[in-house]
Amino acid sequence: MAINIIKTIQIIFYKILNIDRFICRFSENSADVKKNIEILKHGNGNNKNISNMNIKANNNKLEISKKETIFKIIRGVENDASYLYCEITEDMDDLILKIIVRPNSTISILGILFPLLGIISIFTNGFGNTFKDGLLLGLTFIFFGMILYFVGTLLRISLKRIFINFVNSPDGTYSKFATF
Question: Which residues of 153-178 are buried (b: 16+ CB within 10 A; e: fewer)?
């Protein structure tokens, strides 16, 4: 019972912060996937999308981020648009990729913080002389928060698709997706 509650809280936390976790299991085409992962690790792929990536590879882990920088001016803040972490394991003949994809943390946090500030400004009179001032400011904060969350989702989905399409076999099939 307590484990289910913890998992539910964890899933809600990941949804709020716009983090996607999933597992790819390759059985039939695991040799092709291994070859593509090696190409990715050594950075000698001719794919245009992969050439725009920062790739750090260990024995069975990959860290990939897009080279598109969005917060270059601010030091000490993540600069890349989105991040992908991949753990590679083998189980008998299957190749299993545990993947976590997330947008830039600043986008995720501001996408949550702006709507909260908007709700607070709507229900308090501290952000203007009249209720209309607070309502206008609150709706503006909510609107910008929704836009930031949407941009973070697009960045996350873009990196996920690029990685899956590159790693996947040429016939475009993979056997199983699951969340973990």
Answer: bebbebbbebbbebbbbeeeebeeee
Domains contained in the chain, number: 1
Domain span at 98:
20-172
- Dig out the tokens for 173 from the structure: 């099939």
> Could you report the per-residue pLDDT of 50-93, keeping only the tens digit for each?
667 788 888 888 888 877 666 666 666 677 888 899 998 888 87
CB atoms near residue 64 (< 10 Å): 23
- Give SS3 for 68: coil
d(CA 103, CA 19): 7
Evaluate whether 76 touches 106 at the Cβ level (below 8 Å): no
Non-local (6+) Cβ contacts of 7 within 8 A are: none
* Model pTM score: 0.79
Does residue 10 form part of some domain? no
pLDDT in tens, 112-160: 999 999 998 888 866 667 777 788 888 999 999 999 999 999 989 988 8
Give the Cα separation of 43 and 67 in Å (integer). 14
